Amino acid sequence: MEIPSSSLLSLSLVLLFSFVWATSADVHENFVQCLTSHSQNATSISQVIYTPNNSSYTSVLDFSIRNLRFLTPETPKPLVIITPSHESHIQVAIICARNHGLQIRIRSGGHDFEGLSYVSHVPFFILDLINLRSVSVDVESSTAWVQAGTTIGELYYSIAEKSKTLAFPAGICPTVGVGGHISGGGYGMILRKFGLAADNVIDARIIDVNGGILDRESMGEDLFWAIRGGAGGSFGVVIAWKIKLVPVPSIVTVFKVSRTLEQNATMLLHRWQYIADKIDNDLIIITDISRVNSSEEGNKTVQVSFISLFLGRVDELFPLMEKNFPELGLVKEDCREMSWIESTLYIAGFSSGTSLDVLLDRIPDPRISLKGKLDYVNEPISEIGLEGLWKRLNEEEGAAAQIITIPYGGKMSEIPESETPFPHRAGNIYHIAYFVILEEGVEFSNRYVDWTRRLYSYLAPYVSKSPREAYANYRDLDLGQNNDKGNTSYAQASIWGVKYFKNNFKRLVHVKTMVDPSNFFRHEQSIPAISPWGKKRGN
């Protein structure tokens, strides 16, 4: 009897998915067995292994997912989650993953824009560093060791416990993990004075593809260079950073001044572009741009908020503002004096009087869905160009948009492009980051992603070119990605790699090929390892 072709197709699909499920189940069981049999303490490691059969699996997986776009039933899930409490757990996990063909995803704080620290389309496990977050501050030497699972907020809190006049030039969002943050560069409110987080790393501990634990001396200067800005997930598992703390005054000054289009926001932002990277290095003025309700009932407008941190007192700030940016009309009532640690709460948007304990909270409020992009601006955007930007914000999707500009100059212009893999130094006035952000409970449809792509196209004449630069910590798969199986050519990876790293990409590939020739540590935008055969072929 002839079997209908539709029935054959259905049977084939059933057999295929049954095979995939069985294969995945076998891999997962063999991997877990390998972990326990090769661990020095089977009981210890079994307490940090979570499989889908474990009642805590879902809560552990979801806890550090910071982009709700990747918290859906359709999102691929890991076969296993490991939350190591000891370095040996990571060593065993790497060896067993290599033996059983599992891809590793390394999660520090879970803020990867494209979810690459906890999502993969091939069989994978998550190495979640949430249990590795000790901070040891040495005030006398102005240094600290910080484990990679620590958040920026936990780091700031630990520094402030020991000193009111030491700081670290990391980011604004306190729930971001320092493991990934520093790996990609890491910018914040004192970058004009002290550079990036990665610029202030003086040692590190990393577990390599062979399970070896290396420090700066044993890893060598090439690998130490690569991990300070070459982005995470390519070279090994960074388990701790030794960072240089920087001096700040006991009192700093902050302000936030908001202006709408009706209050000359376009003119002010245009003028800001001419002074933002040239003013005193102790002063930074960033902008936060969004659509708001107009004073005219039922109408919308655009608001530009000028947000500032000055490493000094208000009486020192005013002469600088009057000389460089009198158009803003700053008055002393706009300003507040406080400690540096208090300024981190102010800049992060917490209300006055919020306890410093909020820095220890790893869960952001509210939880959001997000798509973002980032560009670098070398020449001021004209007022006509800015007005075109406002038109995009007035589109329907623009109601959920936020645009943030961060000025460079100062220390950022003094550090050579090749000093670390992060190349966006002299010549950049500022970067412009733009996001669509929806709170939990609001569906994030593709039209919001499309809106960011349209804005990206609109900005093309106004931003860097050849290459159009991008920031590795603001991961954007629209720029290109590697092949799933890891056999990506240099030419293919260069499509996105040169945008993130410019001429440093070639050296990153060389280091990757040297330390991880089998390309075990990989994801959609990891640095590829290029084989000698591939080089001969012109790849």
Characterization of the model:
- There is one protein chain.
- By secondary structure, the protein is α+β, with helices and mostly antiparallel strands.
- The chain has 18 helices and 18 strands.
- It has helices at 5-38, 42-46, 57-63, 87-100, 152-162, 178-183, 191-194, 216-219, 221-227, 265-275, 314-324, 340-348, 383-393, 411-414, 446-459, 490-501, 504-515, 532-536, and strands at residues 49-50, 80-82, 103-107, 124-128, 135-138, 143-147, 166-167, 201-207, 213-214, 237-244, 246-247, 252-260, 283-293, 300-310, 335-338, 368-377, 401-407, 430-439.
- The strands form 4 sheets. The protein has a 7-stranded antiparallel beta sheet with strand order 15-12-14-13-17-18-16.
- Strand 13 and strand 14 (300-310) form a beta hairpin.
- Helix 1 (5-38) packs antiparallel against helix 4 (87-100) and helix 13 packs antiparallel against helix 15.
- It is globular.
- Residues 1-22 and 533-539 have low confidence and may be disordered.
Q: Give the overall average pLDDT.
A: 93
In percent, how much strand structure appears in the residues? 15-25%
Which structural class best describes the helix and strand composition? alpha+beta
Distance between termini?
Answer: 53 Å
Please give the share of residues in helix.
25-40%
How much is the radius of gyration in Å?
A: 24 Å
Shape: globular
Biggest sheet character = 7 strands, antiparallel
Multimer state: single chain
Q: Give me the side-by-side strand order of the main sheet.
A: 15-12-14-13-17-18-16
Low-confidence stretches: 1-22, 533-539
Number of E strands: 18
How many helices in DSSP terms?
A: 18
